[in-house]
Every structure is written in C-alpha cells, then in structure tokens.
Amino acid sequence: MRGLLSLLAYWALSAGATVCVVDDRQREVCLEQPAQRIIALSPGITEQTYAAGAGGKLVAAVSFSDYPEAAQSLPRIGGYDRFDQEAIVAMRPDLLIGWSEGNPAEQLAQLESLGLTIYYSEPFEFADIASTIRRIGSLAGTDTQANATADRFISGIEELQQRYASAPPVRVFQQIWKNPLMTVNDEHLISKATRLCGGVNIFADLSQLSPRIDLEAVLAADPEVIVAGGMGEENRDWLEDWKRFDGLTAVRRDNLFFVPPSTLQRPTPRLLEGARLLCQHLDTARDRR
Prior knowledge:
InterPro entries: ABC_Transporter_SBP, ABC_transptr_periplasmic_BD, Vit_B12_bind_prot
Order of helices and strands: HEEEHEEEHEHEHHEHEHEHHEHH
Protein name: Cobalamin-binding protein
Radius of gyration: 20 Å
CATH architecture of the largest domain: 3-Layer(aba) Sandwich
Number of domains: 2
Distance between the termini: 39 Å
Number of strands: 12
Keywords: Signal
CATH superfamily of the largest domain: Nitrogenase molybdenum iron protein domain
Largest sheet: 4 strands, parallel
Strand content: 15-25%
Oligomer: single chain
Number of helices: 12
CATH class of the largest domain: Alpha Beta
C-alpha cells in the first residue's frame, strides 16, 4: 500500500492553489506559486532538489550537503539533527523540505507554528525516490527535468531487477558504521539494493532499521561478502579491520568491497550508481566460489 501511495502522491491536486502535492506523511502541501526560496534539511534532500531541476532555487542547506558540486557553496543552517531556526526564518523560505525521521521533530513543529511550509520526505522504496523527485519538481515548477530524472532512475532499477532476477544468492553483511558497529534490516533501502543484486542481507530480520550489532554476531553469521562505506567517499579503512578475521568466508575469498557511502546511504538517484557497483561486487564474489 505504501508503494502505491508513493507512486500516486506526486499527482497535482486541485485545491484552489497553483500547486498541491501529498508528502510522505500523507499531508497535502500547497503553494500559491512555485517555490522560489527552498531550504533542504538533509544532504539527501539537497541532492534530490538538484535532481529535480530546482537546485537554483535553494537558498540554504545543512552540513555535509556536498553533491552536486554546486551544493557545496550553499549557506549552511546547521546540521540535519539540529539546525539554526533563526537563520532559517531570516532567509524567508517559501518551502522547507524536511527529513521526516531524521530532523528534530520539535524544531520542525516550531517552524510550522511560525507559518513556514514544510514538505516531509521519507522514501522507503525505489519508487518513492522517483515520486519524491517528481513532487519536488511540481512544487518548484521544474516538472520537465524532475520527471525525466525520475524516469531514468526507475528505468535503471528495472534493468537491474531483470538482469539479476535469477542470480545465485550471495550472503552479505552491510556495514554502515564502525563504532558502534551498525548494519541495516530488510526495510532499509541499502538492503533493498542488496536484494536487487541477488544479495541476501544476513541481518534482514532485525527489528530496527539501522541496528547496532555485536562483532560476534557477524563472525557467527559468516557472510560471504562484507560491504562497507567509510568516514568519507574514498575512505576504505573499515574494510581493513576485517582482514584479521581470516576464518571468515568473506576474508578468505577477498570479498571485502567498498561502495562510496553517499551512493547507497542517501535516497537519491545516485542510489542507482551505488546499486550497479554493488551488483558488480556480488558478481565478483560469485566468480570466486
């Protein structure tokens, strides 16, 4: 049901305003005219806004909004987990795009109480990423570019689905943090990208979206592949730590693979780039059997 709602939610609604969409909290968000002054409240949302063709309308973003390159010069209004409300109000935005599960709820509520318009984003499926881009495009008046970007993304995902539909399964440990050691469950987009490539998340059944785990749990599960990001786009140090566990199948077969974190950990069109690289890594693991 969630996926169907997400696919339909970008449709413009007639409600006496120039444009209305339904956000990921199933709230109707209306603007009297396309947004001209947008603030993005997560690095992923900054990237989504550029992907929708509306990057030129961004007046500020949060820390670590580093893609595309143009985003690096945007004024900062704090981090995604604590932002400067006075600075936000002073910039007179006509649209805030918030991260439903990542931004402080009390700060978002205070900004709404001041009359600011907030669109809440929380993609859980590949289709949600596409529909988010379409909806941002609708709110910003950049529908043509947004729809083209969304179409390319969905087409690429469908291509991978077809290519790996019958691929032999590969048991995978996805490491998203080092200290504490963290992974993802099956509801996370990273796990869905893993499954797209024929991978099997060894911690799929855990209840939390991004749970902490014990080292012993990884050793006991003995994954065939370990995939990790790092503290930066080129930092592979997390994988080096695993080499001391030479009893692990992933270590014994040299199946320790790096994927730049922003291509898998942000719900943006670049998830397709990360998924393609991940699929290549799992193909390598199959060849090493």
